[in-house]
Amino acid sequence: MATPLAQVAEVDPVWSRIRREAEDALAEEPLLGGMIHSSVLHHAGFERALAYRIAMKLASPEMGQQILREIVDEALADDPGIARSARTDIVAIEDRDPACHTFLQPLLYFKGFQAVQSYRIAHWLWNRRRRNMAYFFQMRVSEVFGVDIHPAARIGQGIMIDHAHSIVIGETAVVGDNVSMLHSVTLGGTGKEDGDRHPKIGDGVLIGAGAKVLGNIRVGRCSRIAAGSVVLHDVPPCTTVAGVPARVVGEAGCPQPAVSMDHVLPGA
């Protein structure tokens, strides 16, 4: 007969691995026992652990942890895709980030992962016309993580935001699946215009540190935006752009730049 842990692994290998890694971390560093138990080992499943972590990080004197926990639990129960995307994000981060060696690390320590999952709850609230609560989540994510994602933005799964300091993603921005970006990236507008005014980032795009992508433009799938670039016009698929303003400097260099995380420019 399969053990309970083996049965969990059959239906949720991500959660099973997180629990094993939490037990290993506890044995290695007993002083983290309180955090590890409350954040992981105390919970029966990934959704419960994720809800606890989001609520605990975003709680403040203005909104207590219990109320936030109930909101997150409601969102996760209503839309299973939120937790499915979170699992996909964890796998993507462990695969692409050389500083990440466990599935446990994003859940406990990585503010890029935590900010994106908190945004997913804000987006759920926004779509259910609970706009003021969605704005509250946006505010707390910005205050706690230094990441400002408008709750109306649309973001896919398999997302890695490395370091995640000073990320800005505007209201009408769209980010596809399997996108990687580094710190200080802005997906913003170009002025005071209303309506659809933010970038549309295709699947598999790699956005380097400090890059600014501005306006209602399209960045084609599997392209690369070099660090520090300012992108003001459409980017063809499978190309590399660099500079201020950015221009095409070559092909993307590989089929999946967001996965390979290769930032070296052609001829460099």
Automatic annotation (TrEMBL):
Name the keywords, alphabetized. Answer: Acyltransferase, Amino-acid biosynthesis, Repeat, Transferase
Q: Taking every annotated instance into account, which residue ranges of this chain make up the domain Serine acetyltransferase N-terminal?
A: 14-118
Pathway assignment? Amino-acid biosynthesis; L-cysteine biosynthesis; L-cysteine from L-serine: step 1/2
Top-level class of the enzyme under EC nomenclature = transferase
Gene Ontology cellular-component terms listed:
cytoplasm
E.C. code:
2.3.1.30
Q: Name one Pfam family in it.
A: Hexapep
Which BP terms does GO give this entry?
Answer: cysteine biosynthetic process from serine
Q: Which NCBIfam families does the protein's record reference?
A: cysE, EPS_EpsC
Name of the protein described by the UniProt record: Serine acetyltransferase
Lineage of source species = Bacteria, Pseudomonadati, Pseudomonadota, Alphaproteobacteria, Rhodobacterales
